[in-house]
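During the reporting period the student researcher (J.K.) took over the structure-prediction task from the postdoctoral fellow and processed the backlog of single-chain submissions. One of the processed entries is reproduced below for the supervisory committee.
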Amino acid sequence: MRRIVSTYGWVQIAFLSLYPVLLCGQASDSAQNLAACKDGSATCDRSKLSEVELNTVALAAHTRNLSDCRYHFQACDLSQLTQAETITLAIVDHQHNIDNCIDGMTPCDQSKLTPFEARAVTVAKHKRNFDDCKTAIEACDHSVLTPEENSEVDQAMRAQNVENCKDGVGACNHTTLSPSESKTVETARHERNVEYCTNGWDPCDIAGLTPAERNQAVTADHQRNLASCREGRDSCDYAKLDAMETKSMSDAERKRNYAACLTGAGYCDASRLTPTEAKAVASGHPLPR
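J.K. obtained the following C-alpha cells:
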C-alpha cells in the first residue's frame, strides 16, 4: 500500500513539472491561430477564439478590406465600409484622378473633372508642352504655342545650341552662331583641347596648341610617365626617360630588389644581386646604409 501511494505521488510530481510546458504549448498554438485569423489565413480556426479575439480579428479584417479598397485591389468589398470611410475613399480617388490628369499620367478620367478642374488640367497640359518645346523633347507641339511662346522657345533653343557647341557635346549647329558666339565657342574648344592634352586625355590635338601650351603638355606627359616608372606601372615607357632618370630608376629598382630578397616581401630576382648583396641576404645581416 505504501508503495502504491509513493508511486501515485511521483506521478503527481511529474504531471506538475510538465504542466507549465503543456500550458506554454497551448498558448503558442493559440497565438499562432489568432495570428492566422487576423491575416485571413485558411488555417484559421474561429471556434478556438475567445470573444475578445473574435473582435480583434473582425477589426483586422475591416482594416485589411479598407486597405484593399484604397489601392483598388479586387478583394475590396465596398459594402463593408462605413459611410465616413466611403466618403474619404471617394475624396482620395477624385484627387488622385485630378493629379494624374494634371501630370499627364494614367489613369486619367476627364469626365470626372469639374469645369474648374478641367481648366486647370488644360493649363497644366499647355505648360508641359511649352516646357517640352524649350527642352527640345519630341512630344513638343509648336502649333499650340502663342507667338510669344514660340519666340521664347527659339531663344532657349539658340542658347542650348551655343552651350552644346561650347561643351562639345550634343547637337551643335555652327551655322546659326553669331560672330561673337563663334568666338566664344572657339575659345572654349581651345581651352578644352589644352586641358585634354595636358592631362593626357583623348581627343587631344597637339597641332592646335601654342608653343607654350605644347611645352606644357609635353612636360606634363613626361612627369606622368616618370611617376608611372617609379611606381612600376604598366604604362611606364622607359624610352621616354633621359639618362639621369634611367639611372635613377635602375638604382631604385636595385634597392627594391635587394630589400625584397632580404625581407622576403615582394618580388625578388636573386640573379640581379651583387655579390655583396647576395652575401648579406644569405647571412640575414643587411648592409650598412
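The committee noted the following: The mean pLDDT is 86.
J.K. will present the remaining backlog at the next meeting.
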